């Protein structure tokens, strides 16, 4: 079975590619820059940009299923799936997010170009057997948000100690995606995929400290201070402002409590946040200068 994977060189896409190849599928991995792809030799790499579906038209023949990655599609998800269907595709799994039904101004990632809502809507309207993977916050967000501070010292300064969500191990997301691409078992479902525990920012930092054996401490600082820092290191200001607004809006309530969807799909408990940290512990440790 041939499967087209968009976003194949990214955090989620690489894991989806690995998983599908491990299951014996023929993977056609899409990237804008094949020379930088760094994917396994067994994977067919094709050059294209999903936000310009005509660039993918030559690569759709023989494709049975499409992994539709919400960061790559711009305004073109419908067109891409229409082309895929014309060429014989039968199935689509769309990467989406648990917050897709929130007001758009409380979906900060839209300001970085992500189109989770459109990816899901295009899949549903495609006429293909569709699955929407509504993902909760990725566990790797912790590394992006706090990795540099933890490598430098034992204090993590960030907003809202009590802000709470259910971090999802991207490997479990990729496993669910591969099931949706390889079988019809998950067709017609909007899966609400969370990790197995709801944790506050302060609790996540404590878990990281326990796993890597360091006395980490969370220090809450006002959103304005963190926004200033994030903009200073080059993140787009509108995105940073929207992210802080989202934290402030949801600070007093649990964001995306645990659902049982992932356990049911995988037939086993999802990986915990501690599992994820243990498998990425080196990334939190200071580099040994000796
Ligand atoms: N982080 C979270 O907590 C979370 C939760 C739920 C959903 N999501 C969604 O998951 C997605 C992020 O997944 P990820 O971490 O796998 O993404 P990623 O690693 O940043 O990007 C995936 C790939 O997409 C391609 N790409 C990036 N920007 C593009 C653009 N403007 N146009 C065309 N292609 C582009 C790149 O491939 P090439 O350069 O090789 O072409 C990149 O390697 C987002 O849509 C986000 O909203 C995230």
Give a description of the structure.
The chain is an alpha/beta fold and about 290 residues long. Helices cover about 35% and strands about 15% of the residues. It has 10 helices and 11 strands. It has helices at about 10-20, 75-85, 115-125, 140-150, 170-180, 200-210, 225-230, 235-250, 260-265, 275-280; strands spanning about 1-5, 25-30, 45, 65-70, 90-95, 130-135, 155-160, 165, 190-195, 200, 215-220. The strands form 3 sheets. The protein has a 7-stranded parallel β-sheet, with helices on both faces. A two-stranded parallel ribbon has the order 7-11. A two-stranded antiparallel sheet has the order 8-10. Strand 5 (about 90-95), helix 3 (about 115-125) and strand 6 form a beta-alpha-beta unit. Helix 1 (about 10-20) crosses helix 5 (about 170-180). It is globular. Bound molecules: NADP nicotinamide-adenine-dinucleotide phosphate. NADP nicotinamide-adenine-dinucleotide phosphate binds near residues 11, 12, 13 and 32. The site of NADP nicotinamide-adenine-dinucleotide phosphate (NAP) has 26 residues, from helix 1 and strand 5.
Keywords summarizing the entry:
binds NADP nicotinamide-adenine-dinucleotide phosphate, alpha/beta, 290 residues, Rossmann fold, 17% strand, seven-stranded parallel sheet, two-stranded parallel ribbon, globular
């Amino acid at each position: 079975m041939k499967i087209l994977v968009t976003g194949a060189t990214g955090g989620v896409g690489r894991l989806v590619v690995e998983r599908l190849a491990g299951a014996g599928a023929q993977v056609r991995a899409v990237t804008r820059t094949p020379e930088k792809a760094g994917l396994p030799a067994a994977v067919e790499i094709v050059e294209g940009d999903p936000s310009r579906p005509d660039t993918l038209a030559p690569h759709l023949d023989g494709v049975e299923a499409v992994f539709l990655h919400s960061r790559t599609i711009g305004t073109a998800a419908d067109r891409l799936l229409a082309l895929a269907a014309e060429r014989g595709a039968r199935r689509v799994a769309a990467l989406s997010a648990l917050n897709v039904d929130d007001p758009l101004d409380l979906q900060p990632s839209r300001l970085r170009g992500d189109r989770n809502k459109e990816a899901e809507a295009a899949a549903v309207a495609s006429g293909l057997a569709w699955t929407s993977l509504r993902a909760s916050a990725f566990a790797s967000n912790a590394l992006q948000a706090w990795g540099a501070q933890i490598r430098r010292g034992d204090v993590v300064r960030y907003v809202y100690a009590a802000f709470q969500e259910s971090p999802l191990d991207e490997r479990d997301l990729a496993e669910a995606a591969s099931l949706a691409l390889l079988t019809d078992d998950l067709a017609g479902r909007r899966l609400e995929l969370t990790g197995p525990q709801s944790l506050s920012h302060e609790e996540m930092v404590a878990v990281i400290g326990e796993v890597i054996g360091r006395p980490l401490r969370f220090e809450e600082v006002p959103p304005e201070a963190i926004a200033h820092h994030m903009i200073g290191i080059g993140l787009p200001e509108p995105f940073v402002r929207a992210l802080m607004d989202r934290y402030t809006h949801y600070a007093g309530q649990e964001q995306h409590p645990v659902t049982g969807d992932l356990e049911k799909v995988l037939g086993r408990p999802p990986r915990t946040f501690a599992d994820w940290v243990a498998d990425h512990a080196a990334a939190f440790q200071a580099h040994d200068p000796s």
